[in-house]
Amino acid sequence: MSQENTASAPSQPPAPPKPHGFFTVLLWDTPWRIIGMLLVSLLFSLVVEYIGIAFFWPEQGAAHSREVMVIESGYFAEGFTQSLLLSAPVVTVQNWVTAGYQWLFVDSGFMAWLQTIQTPAGHTGNGVTDGLNAWSAQAIQMGHEYLMASVYVSLVFLMRVMILVLSIPLFVLTAVVGVADGMVRRDLRRYGAAYESSFLYHHAKRFVKPAAYIPCVLYLSAPFSVYPNLLLLPAALLTGAAISVTMGSFKKYL
């Protein structure tokens, strides 16, 4: 009888996984998420550049990404003359980008290998062989364009990552202002017996991360030159506004 009762008893669902603590999320989960976002942005920017070379700017080839790199360097030199994180941001970041280029492409032998594959095949006088040599030379030239575009896109990506790092104080400032403004409005709502909306709170809370992540991913992945303030300043303001609404609509009583 007891065996029948045991068999007929419904099986309990497994317990949900225990959520990570604050320090685990801050020191482990968040860095890996940032690394994943950077890798996805770099891969997406490379794919977009390859598609552009194949269909939209085949005449320019790798010169398109090189032009973007030059324009982005000018934006950085003009807009980041001062920073709370670095005393001389332009010189320091240029040294970092140069060191990254030296390590990734020169010391690794990648640029030397690119020079070796540019050697065209010789003329043999045979029509079939000449046709194959011409096709292989064209394929080598196309491969060289894509590889050089990868180099320029990687350098643009490194520069944009540095710009995002230097923009961290802007996001921190808007977040602090958003928290302060939201807490003041929450206290006014609490002591004034105003209406409390959990719907607004939950939707504003979900909007905080996309408000910061999506513009940064778009900025890192853009295949054309973008003035940083056109994306980063609205992203910081939207993040601060989302935090303010979240804190202001938080429940009155804990």
From TrEMBL:
Superkingdom field = Bacteria
Membrane spanning stretches: 34-57, 151-180, 230-250
Question: Per UniProt, what is one Pfam family of this protein?
Answer: DtrJ-like
Which InterPro entries does this one have? DtrJ-like
Has keyword Ribonucleoprotein? no
Which keywords does this Swiss-Prot/TrEMBL entry list?
Answer: Membrane, Transmembrane, Transmembrane helix
Name of protein: TIGR03747 family integrating conjugative element membrane protein
What is the organism of origin for this protein? Answer: Chimaeribacter californicus
